[in-house]
Amino acid sequence: MWKPAALAITTVAIVSQLGATDCGQVLRDPGFDLWCGESLCAWKLERGTISRVATWHSADSGVALGDDSAIEQLAPVNSLDTSCITFDLVANIDDDAEVFLNVDIEGDGTLEMHERLPSAHWKPLSYSIGLAGPYDGIRFELTKNGAGNAVLAQIGASTSSTCDGLSRLDPGPRPDGAACLSPQQCASGLCVDGGATASSLLGLTCGRCDPAQPCASPDEVCGFGVAISPILAVPLTCVAKASVPLGEHCLSNAECASNLCNQFTCSSCNDTTVCPPGQTCNPAWGGVTETIRVPGPFVCGGGEAKAVKGAPCGTDDDCAGGHCSGTPIKECNDGRPCVTDAQCPLDTSLTSTTCTIAGVSGGSCD
Fold this sequence. Notes:
CATH topology of the largest domain: Jelly Rolls
Order of helices and strands: EEEEEEEEEEEEEEEEEEEEEEEE
Strand order of the largest sheet: 1-11-8-13-6-5
Strand content: 25-35%
Number of strands: 24
Number of domains: 3
Shape: elongated
Oligomer: single chain
Radius of gyration: 24 Å
CATH architecture of the largest domain: Sandwich
Number of helices: 0
Distance between the termini: 54 Å
Structural class: mainly beta
């Protein structure tokens, strides 16, 4: 669904250094210089075909969009960075080619802006886009319909101050995991403390339950759900009691099969546990000196290679026998579960962080 946008064509952009941008730059690779084989590295091909072509300058290259083609890039810029973005590009578009700039706040599939680019012969185009907060990120999409030629170059977006007097794009009811300031902003009607993986405004996110209140079913408890986007926090939702295995994230003891949640991870020990002689209660991975935000499960003998056969573990380093059996856990550096790098938040260079195997869930020493 497209909701009509308010924007102004302008020629001035003011850049500032802000946290979720690269020195005020909102998009990666504005010149389309980073090609991986026949594909763009920074932009994702949604559909159709693209090709690398020459432009008006021998030192520059552009991207030619094939019929019914679309490319996109998800940017982590948020309302703490700016309420105004200037989007710039240089275009060579035939009259019979329909090229659109789409703006999808939160990257949830709903277009807040659907603007056709005018036909042009290597003409610079610039759009000022006002944004209502809070918001967590933006998916920028460029699409082409029709048989005419369309080549785009020097595409970029930056924080700006040129939106005075413009109405603001409003993402409407916010999805689970989105930053919020009040329940009225959330589709779920709940704005709650997001716990360990909340990285947005004041730690408050839209969710399906409140840890301070019981879930509707007596068989469920408020716990972590699944992030729907790398620009959104892991949301809170009701989960079955005692259903979360050792090593997975938790909010309370009741979630865990072990009945123990230690520092947001289902564990087998805490600082009151009496471990076997010579063993201490340690996290299987992570910790205050590492970049992983949420530590692995706390187990007796964690990292000490002392846990005996059948004892709980998170990695091979916990076990005297050198092997911990379980289901591999892959995590981003903020602790959220992942399968690929594309599911991880972007760093300050606007590049996806790494999805790596941290250990195993439900682990026991062989």
